[in-house]
Write a structure and sequence with these properties.
Blueprint: H1 2-22, H2 29-45, E1 55-60, H3 70-122, E2 124-125, E3 132-136, E4 143-145, E5 148-152, H4 153-157, H5 163-174, H6 177-190, H7 195-216, H8 222-232, E6 243-244, H9 250-258, H10 265-286, E7 292-297, H11 313-319, H12 330-336, H13 347-353
Parallel strand pairs: 1-7, 3-5
Antiparallel strand pairs: 2-3, 4-5, 4-6
Helix pairs in contact: 1-2, 1-10, 2-7, 3-6, 5-7, 6-7, 8-9
Protein backbone atom coordinates (compact mmCIF):
# COMPACT_ATOMS: atom_id res chain seq x y z
CA UNK A 1 0.00 0.00 0.00
CA UNK A 2 2.81 2.40 0.86
CA UNK A 3 4.50 1.69 -2.45
CA UNK A 4 1.25 2.44 -4.30
CA UNK A 5 0.69 5.73 -2.47
CA UNK A 6 4.25 6.90 -3.16
CA UNK A 7 4.10 6.11 -6.88
CA UNK A 8 0.65 7.64 -7.40
CA UNK A 9 1.64 10.78 -5.48
CA UNK A 10 4.82 11.19 -7.52
CA UNK A 11 2.88 10.79 -10.78
CA UNK A 12 0.17 13.21 -9.70
CA UNK A 13 2.74 15.77 -8.55
CA UNK A 14 4.72 15.69 -11.79
CA UNK A 15 1.61 15.90 -14.00
CA UNK A 16 0.26 18.80 -11.99
CA UNK A 17 3.51 20.74 -12.29
CA UNK A 18 3.47 20.14 -16.04
CA UNK A 19 0.07 21.83 -16.08
CA UNK A 20 1.33 24.61 -13.81
CA UNK A 21 4.34 25.34 -16.02
CA UNK A 22 2.82 25.04 -19.49
CA UNK A 23 -1.00 25.29 -19.38
CA UNK A 24 -2.08 27.32 -16.37
CA UNK A 25 -1.99 30.81 -17.89
CA UNK A 26 -3.17 30.14 -21.44
CA UNK A 27 -6.62 29.61 -22.91
CA UNK A 28 -6.58 25.85 -23.47
CA UNK A 29 -9.71 25.18 -21.42
CA UNK A 30 -11.02 22.21 -23.42
CA UNK A 31 -7.63 20.53 -23.42
CA UNK A 32 -7.12 21.27 -19.72
CA UNK A 33 -10.39 19.59 -18.81
CA UNK A 34 -9.37 16.26 -20.32
CA UNK A 35 -5.81 16.68 -19.12
CA UNK A 36 -7.01 16.82 -15.50
CA UNK A 37 -9.13 13.70 -15.95
CA UNK A 38 -6.19 11.95 -17.60
CA UNK A 39 -3.91 13.05 -14.74
CA UNK A 40 -6.13 11.47 -12.10
CA UNK A 41 -6.71 8.21 -13.98
CA UNK A 42 -3.05 7.94 -14.92
CA UNK A 43 -1.76 8.54 -11.39
CA UNK A 44 -4.17 6.04 -9.83
CA UNK A 45 -3.60 3.24 -12.35
CA UNK A 46 0.08 3.51 -13.31
CA UNK A 47 1.31 1.74 -10.11
CA UNK A 48 -0.62 -1.36 -11.24
CA UNK A 49 1.00 -1.46 -14.69
CA UNK A 50 3.91 -3.87 -14.74
CA UNK A 51 6.47 -4.73 -17.42
CA UNK A 52 8.26 -8.03 -16.81
CA UNK A 53 11.93 -7.12 -17.21
CA UNK A 54 13.23 -8.31 -13.85
CA UNK A 55 15.98 -10.77 -13.00
CA UNK A 56 15.02 -14.43 -12.52
CA UNK A 57 16.43 -15.73 -9.26
CA UNK A 58 16.44 -19.54 -8.96
CA UNK A 59 16.10 -20.86 -5.46
CA UNK A 60 16.68 -24.50 -4.57
CA UNK A 61 14.43 -26.05 -1.97
CA UNK A 62 17.33 -27.97 -0.46
CA UNK A 63 19.47 -24.96 0.41
CA UNK A 64 20.05 -24.70 4.13
CA UNK A 65 21.46 -21.80 6.03
CA UNK A 66 24.60 -22.74 7.88
CA UNK A 67 25.57 -19.16 8.62
CA UNK A 68 24.06 -18.87 12.08
CA UNK A 69 23.61 -21.10 15.04
CA UNK A 70 20.29 -22.15 16.54
CA UNK A 71 20.53 -19.69 19.41
CA UNK A 72 21.07 -16.76 17.04
CA UNK A 73 18.03 -17.79 15.02
CA UNK A 74 15.83 -17.93 18.11
CA UNK A 75 16.92 -14.47 19.25
CA UNK A 76 16.32 -13.01 15.81
CA UNK A 77 12.90 -14.65 15.54
CA UNK A 78 11.73 -13.24 18.86
CA UNK A 79 12.92 -9.75 17.87
CA UNK A 80 11.16 -9.97 14.52
CA UNK A 81 7.92 -11.12 16.13
CA UNK A 82 7.97 -8.19 18.52
CA UNK A 83 8.69 -5.76 15.70
CA UNK A 84 5.89 -7.27 13.60
CA UNK A 85 3.40 -6.80 16.44
CA UNK A 86 4.31 -3.11 16.72
CA UNK A 87 3.91 -2.62 12.98
CA UNK A 88 0.53 -4.35 13.02
CA UNK A 89 -0.70 -2.14 15.84
CA UNK A 90 0.36 1.01 13.99
CA UNK A 91 -1.16 -0.27 10.73
CA UNK A 92 -4.47 -1.00 12.43
CA UNK A 93 -4.55 2.47 13.94
CA UNK A 94 -3.81 4.17 10.61
CA UNK A 95 -6.38 1.99 8.88
CA UNK A 96 -8.99 3.01 11.44
CA UNK A 97 -8.21 6.71 10.85
CA UNK A 98 -8.43 6.19 7.09
CA UNK A 99 -11.87 4.55 7.22
CA UNK A 100 -13.15 7.13 9.70
CA UNK A 101 -12.26 10.11 7.48
CA UNK A 102 -13.43 8.32 4.33
CA UNK A 103 -16.76 7.58 6.00
CA UNK A 104 -17.22 11.24 6.96
CA UNK A 105 -16.46 12.42 3.42
CA UNK A 106 -18.76 9.79 1.95
CA UNK A 107 -21.65 10.79 4.22
CA UNK A 108 -21.08 14.43 3.32
CA UNK A 109 -21.09 13.57 -0.37
CA UNK A 110 -24.29 11.50 -0.13
CA UNK A 111 -26.06 14.12 2.01
CA UNK A 112 -25.36 16.96 -0.42
CA UNK A 113 -26.30 14.81 -3.38
CA UNK A 114 -29.59 13.99 -1.68
CA UNK A 115 -30.14 17.66 -0.88
CA UNK A 116 -29.79 18.72 -4.52
CA UNK A 117 -31.99 15.90 -5.80
CA UNK A 118 -34.65 16.77 -3.21
CA UNK A 119 -34.58 20.44 -4.26
CA UNK A 120 -35.03 19.50 -7.92
CA UNK A 121 -37.85 17.08 -7.13
CA UNK A 122 -39.86 19.34 -4.80
CA UNK A 123 -39.49 22.65 -6.69
CA UNK A 124 -41.50 24.03 -9.59
CA UNK A 125 -39.94 23.98 -13.03
CA UNK A 126 -40.18 26.30 -16.00
CA UNK A 127 -41.90 24.60 -18.94
CA UNK A 128 -40.34 24.43 -22.41
CA UNK A 129 -36.78 25.25 -21.37
CA UNK A 130 -33.69 23.19 -22.05
CA UNK A 131 -31.90 22.74 -19.70
CA UNK A 132 -34.80 22.81 -17.29
CA UNK A 133 -34.94 25.76 -14.90
CA UNK A 134 -35.83 24.78 -11.33
CA UNK A 135 -37.46 27.50 -9.20
CA UNK A 136 -36.23 26.95 -5.66
CA UNK A 137 -37.83 28.72 -2.70
CA UNK A 138 -34.40 28.89 -1.03
CA UNK A 139 -32.31 32.01 -1.39
CA UNK A 140 -29.47 30.87 -3.62
CA UNK A 141 -27.28 31.91 -6.51
CA UNK A 142 -27.93 30.29 -9.90
CA UNK A 143 -26.15 26.93 -10.12
CA UNK A 144 -26.43 23.88 -12.32
CA UNK A 145 -26.50 20.13 -11.77
CA UNK A 146 -26.53 17.87 -14.83
CA UNK A 147 -29.50 19.03 -16.95
CA UNK A 148 -31.01 21.37 -14.36
CA UNK A 149 -30.40 25.06 -13.56
CA UNK A 150 -31.51 25.95 -10.03
CA UNK A 151 -32.43 29.59 -9.39
CA UNK A 152 -34.29 31.53 -6.73
CA UNK A 153 -38.01 31.61 -7.53
CA UNK A 154 -38.68 35.24 -6.50
CA UNK A 155 -35.64 36.62 -8.33
CA UNK A 156 -36.55 34.71 -11.50
CA UNK A 157 -40.19 35.87 -11.46
CA UNK A 158 -39.09 39.51 -10.93
CA UNK A 159 -36.57 39.28 -13.78
CA UNK A 160 -33.59 40.01 -11.53
CA UNK A 161 -31.47 37.18 -12.93
CA UNK A 162 -29.40 38.37 -15.87
CA UNK A 163 -29.53 36.35 -19.07
CA UNK A 164 -25.72 36.03 -19.06
CA UNK A 165 -25.92 33.97 -15.88
CA UNK A 166 -28.40 31.61 -17.52
CA UNK A 167 -26.09 31.27 -20.51
CA UNK A 168 -23.21 30.57 -18.15
CA UNK A 169 -25.10 27.75 -16.44
CA UNK A 170 -26.31 26.34 -19.74
CA UNK A 171 -22.67 25.78 -20.69
CA UNK A 172 -22.14 23.74 -17.52
CA UNK A 173 -25.15 21.60 -18.40
CA UNK A 174 -24.37 21.09 -22.08
CA UNK A 175 -20.74 20.16 -21.40
CA UNK A 176 -21.71 17.80 -18.53
CA UNK A 177 -19.41 19.38 -15.98
CA UNK A 178 -21.32 17.66 -13.18
CA UNK A 179 -19.80 14.35 -14.27
CA UNK A 180 -16.33 15.73 -13.58
CA UNK A 181 -17.40 16.98 -10.16
CA UNK A 182 -18.97 13.67 -9.17
CA UNK A 183 -15.90 11.78 -10.37
CA UNK A 184 -13.41 13.91 -8.44
CA UNK A 185 -15.58 13.75 -5.31
CA UNK A 186 -15.58 9.94 -5.38
CA UNK A 187 -11.81 9.92 -5.89
CA UNK A 188 -11.44 12.32 -2.98
CA UNK A 189 -13.40 10.01 -0.67
CA UNK A 190 -10.95 7.18 -1.42
CA UNK A 191 -7.69 9.11 -1.76
CA UNK A 192 -8.33 12.02 0.61
CA UNK A 193 -4.80 11.62 2.07
CA UNK A 194 -3.22 12.79 -1.20
CA UNK A 195 -3.02 16.62 -1.09
CA UNK A 196 -2.84 16.96 -4.87
CA UNK A 197 -6.31 15.44 -5.19
CA UNK A 198 -7.68 18.49 -3.37
CA UNK A 199 -5.58 20.88 -5.45
CA UNK A 200 -6.66 19.33 -8.74
CA UNK A 201 -10.31 19.41 -7.65
CA UNK A 202 -10.09 23.21 -7.28
CA UNK A 203 -8.35 23.49 -10.64
CA UNK A 204 -11.10 21.43 -12.30
CA UNK A 205 -13.80 23.66 -10.84
CA UNK A 206 -11.94 26.79 -11.90
CA UNK A 207 -11.46 25.43 -15.42
CA UNK A 208 -15.21 24.77 -15.62
CA UNK A 209 -15.80 28.43 -14.84
CA UNK A 210 -13.31 29.44 -17.52
CA UNK A 211 -15.22 27.34 -20.05
CA UNK A 212 -18.58 28.80 -19.06
CA UNK A 213 -17.25 32.37 -19.00
CA UNK A 214 -15.67 31.96 -22.41
CA UNK A 215 -18.98 30.71 -23.85
CA UNK A 216 -21.02 33.49 -22.28
CA UNK A 217 -18.65 36.19 -23.55
CA UNK A 218 -19.34 35.13 -27.14
CA UNK A 219 -22.70 36.95 -26.90
CA UNK A 220 -22.22 39.27 -23.90
CA UNK A 221 -20.30 42.48 -23.30
CA UNK A 222 -17.07 41.94 -21.33
CA UNK A 223 -17.43 44.87 -18.92
CA UNK A 224 -21.10 44.21 -18.18
CA UNK A 225 -20.36 40.54 -17.55
CA UNK A 226 -17.48 41.36 -15.19
CA UNK A 227 -19.71 43.78 -13.26
CA UNK A 228 -22.34 41.06 -12.84
CA UNK A 229 -19.73 38.69 -11.43
CA UNK A 230 -18.45 41.33 -9.01
CA UNK A 231 -21.97 41.91 -7.71
CA UNK A 232 -22.27 38.19 -6.97
CA UNK A 233 -18.98 37.87 -5.05
CA UNK A 234 -20.47 38.87 -1.69
CA UNK A 235 -23.47 36.55 -1.96
CA UNK A 236 -21.78 33.63 -0.26
CA UNK A 237 -24.26 30.76 -0.36
CA UNK A 238 -22.64 28.26 -2.68
CA UNK A 239 -24.01 24.75 -3.10
CA UNK A 240 -21.74 21.75 -2.76
CA UNK A 241 -21.41 19.51 -5.87
CA UNK A 242 -22.91 22.24 -8.05
CA UNK A 243 -21.39 24.55 -10.63
CA UNK A 244 -21.96 28.10 -9.48
CA UNK A 245 -20.36 31.53 -9.26
CA UNK A 246 -19.37 31.57 -5.64
CA UNK A 247 -15.67 30.81 -5.74
CA UNK A 248 -12.79 32.55 -4.03
CA UNK A 249 -10.95 32.56 -7.36
CA UNK A 250 -13.20 35.10 -9.02
CA UNK A 251 -10.24 37.42 -9.48
CA UNK A 252 -8.48 34.80 -11.63
CA UNK A 253 -11.58 34.45 -13.75
CA UNK A 254 -11.71 38.20 -14.36
CA UNK A 255 -8.04 38.26 -15.34
CA UNK A 256 -8.42 35.28 -17.67
CA UNK A 257 -11.26 37.03 -19.53
CA UNK A 258 -8.94 39.84 -20.59
CA UNK A 259 -6.16 37.57 -21.88
CA UNK A 260 -5.68 36.90 -25.55
CA UNK A 261 -4.94 33.53 -27.02
CA UNK A 262 -1.24 32.76 -26.80
CA UNK A 263 0.81 32.15 -29.95
CA UNK A 264 2.68 29.34 -28.19
CA UNK A 265 -0.44 27.33 -27.34
CA UNK A 266 0.29 24.50 -29.78
CA UNK A 267 3.94 24.34 -28.72
CA UNK A 268 3.00 24.09 -25.04
CA UNK A 269 0.50 21.32 -25.72
CA UNK A 270 3.03 19.43 -27.83
CA UNK A 271 5.52 19.63 -24.97
CA UNK A 272 3.08 18.37 -22.34
CA UNK A 273 1.92 15.28 -24.26
CA UNK A 274 5.34 13.61 -24.80
CA UNK A 275 6.47 14.51 -21.28
CA UNK A 276 3.39 12.80 -19.87
CA UNK A 277 4.03 9.70 -21.96
CA UNK A 278 7.68 9.71 -20.93
CA UNK A 279 6.60 9.81 -17.28
CA UNK A 280 4.47 6.71 -17.85
CA UNK A 281 7.40 4.82 -19.35
CA UNK A 282 9.71 5.84 -16.51
CA UNK A 283 7.23 4.83 -13.81
CA UNK A 284 6.49 1.42 -15.30
CA UNK A 285 10.18 0.64 -15.78
CA UNK A 286 11.22 1.97 -12.38
CA UNK A 287 8.89 -0.28 -10.46
CA UNK A 288 10.18 -3.45 -12.20
CA UNK A 289 13.89 -2.73 -12.57
CA UNK A 290 14.75 -4.20 -9.19
CA UNK A 291 12.03 -6.79 -9.09
CA UNK A 292 13.13 -10.43 -9.06
CA UNK A 293 11.23 -13.53 -9.91
CA UNK A 294 11.67 -16.48 -7.56
CA UNK A 295 11.53 -19.95 -9.10
CA UNK A 296 11.70 -23.04 -6.93
CA UNK A 297 13.41 -26.11 -8.34
CA UNK A 298 13.47 -29.68 -7.10
CA UNK A 299 16.48 -31.86 -6.31
CA UNK A 300 15.87 -33.88 -9.49
CA UNK A 301 16.41 -30.80 -11.66
CA UNK A 302 19.63 -30.15 -13.52
CA UNK A 303 20.99 -27.92 -10.79
CA UNK A 304 23.08 -30.05 -8.36
CA UNK A 305 22.64 -29.64 -4.62
CA UNK A 306 25.05 -27.29 -2.90
CA UNK A 307 28.27 -28.76 -1.39
CA UNK A 308 28.41 -29.25 2.37
CA UNK A 309 29.94 -26.42 4.35
CA UNK A 310 33.70 -26.47 4.97
CA UNK A 311 34.44 -27.14 8.62
CA UNK A 312 37.56 -26.52 10.65
CA UNK A 313 39.61 -29.75 10.91
CA UNK A 314 40.89 -29.00 14.39
CA UNK A 315 37.40 -28.32 15.79
CA UNK A 316 36.10 -31.39 14.00
CA UNK A 317 38.80 -33.60 15.62
CA UNK A 318 37.94 -32.19 19.04
CA UNK A 319 34.26 -32.97 18.66
CA UNK A 320 34.71 -36.52 17.28
CA UNK A 321 35.07 -39.25 20.00
CA UNK A 322 38.07 -41.67 19.76
CA UNK A 323 37.43 -44.81 17.70
CA UNK A 324 36.94 -48.17 19.48
CA UNK A 325 39.91 -50.64 19.53
CA UNK A 326 40.00 -52.98 16.57
CA UNK A 327 38.78 -56.53 17.00
CA UNK A 328 41.53 -59.06 16.10
CA UNK A 329 41.41 -62.76 15.27
CA UNK A 330 42.44 -64.91 18.22
CA UNK A 331 44.10 -67.63 16.11
CA UNK A 332 46.22 -65.16 14.19
CA UNK A 333 47.09 -63.47 17.44
CA UNK A 334 48.37 -66.73 18.94
CA UNK A 335 50.46 -67.43 15.86
CA UNK A 336 52.04 -64.01 15.99
CA UNK A 337 52.87 -64.08 19.70
CA UNK A 338 56.46 -65.35 20.42
CA UNK A 339 56.96 -68.19 22.97
CA UNK A 340 57.20 -67.06 26.54
CA UNK A 341 60.65 -66.94 28.17
CA UNK A 342 61.68 -69.83 30.50
CA UNK A 343 60.61 -69.39 34.05
CA UNK A 344 63.12 -68.10 36.53
CA UNK A 345 63.65 -70.66 39.31
CA UNK A 346 64.29 -69.87 42.92
CA UNK A 347 67.67 -71.09 44.15
CA UNK A 348 66.39 -71.99 47.60
CA UNK A 349 63.59 -74.07 46.24
CA UNK A 350 66.05 -75.69 43.90
CA UNK A 351 68.28 -76.72 46.75
CA UNK A 352 65.35 -78.11 48.66
CA UNK A 353 64.34 -80.21 45.74
CA UNK A 354 67.88 -81.68 45.29
CA UNK A 355 68.44 -85.21 46.63
CA UNK A 356 70.46 -85.50 49.81
CA UNK A 357 74.16 -86.32 49.39
CA UNK A 358 75.33 -89.88 49.97
CA UNK A 359 76.56 -90.69 53.42
CA UNK A 360 80.25 -90.46 54.06
CA UNK A 361 81.89 -93.80 54.60
CA UNK A 362 84.87 -93.72 57.00
CA UNK A 363 87.57 -96.38 56.93
CA UNK A 364 89.08 -97.85 60.00
Amino acid sequence: MTDYVVKSTISLTILYFLYYLFLRNIKTFEFNRFYFLFTIIFALTIPFVQITTGIILIINQNIYDYSSSLSDINIQSSFENEQTDNILNLSNFLLLIYFLISSILLMRFVFNLYKIIKTIKNSNKVINTLPKIVLSPDKTLPYSFFNFIIVNKKEYEKGEIDISLILHEQTHCKQFHSIDIIFIEIIKVIFWFNPFIWIIKKEIQLNHEYLADNKALQTQNLKNYQNILLNLVFRNNSTYLASNFNYSLTKKRLIMMTKKKSKTTIIRIMMVIPLSLFLGIVMTNAQDSTKTKNVQVKQSDTIPPPPPPIEDKQSKQDDVPPPPPPIEDKQSKQDDVPPPPPPIEDKQSKQDDAPPPPPIIKKD
